[in-house]
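RECORD TYPE: inverse folding
INPUT: structure tokens
STRUCTURE:
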């Protein structure tokens, strides 16, 4: 998931459990730096963002949105 840069792991866990109705085992986060992009002779950076990897418990149901992707 892409999350707010100021969100911490406990806030992310609480939000995922409320929104999707699942049980979260753990949350890992990564701060991603924006890539350098060039358009002709001008250049700039994409925005930085935070990514969250969420692991669900074994007895939790799957998130329905991601079942349709596989």
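DESIGNED SEQUENCE:
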């Amino acid at each position: 998931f892409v999350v707010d840069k100021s969100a911490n792991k406990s806030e992310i866990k609480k939000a995922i459990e409320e929104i999707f109705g699942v049980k979260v085992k753990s949350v890992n986060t990564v701060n991603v730096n924006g890539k350098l992009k060039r358009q002709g002779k001008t250049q700039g950076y994409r925005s930085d963002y935070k990514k969250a990897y969420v692991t669900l418990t074994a007895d939790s149901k799957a998130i329905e949105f991601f079942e349709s992707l596989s």
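NOTES: Helices lie at 9-20, 64-67.
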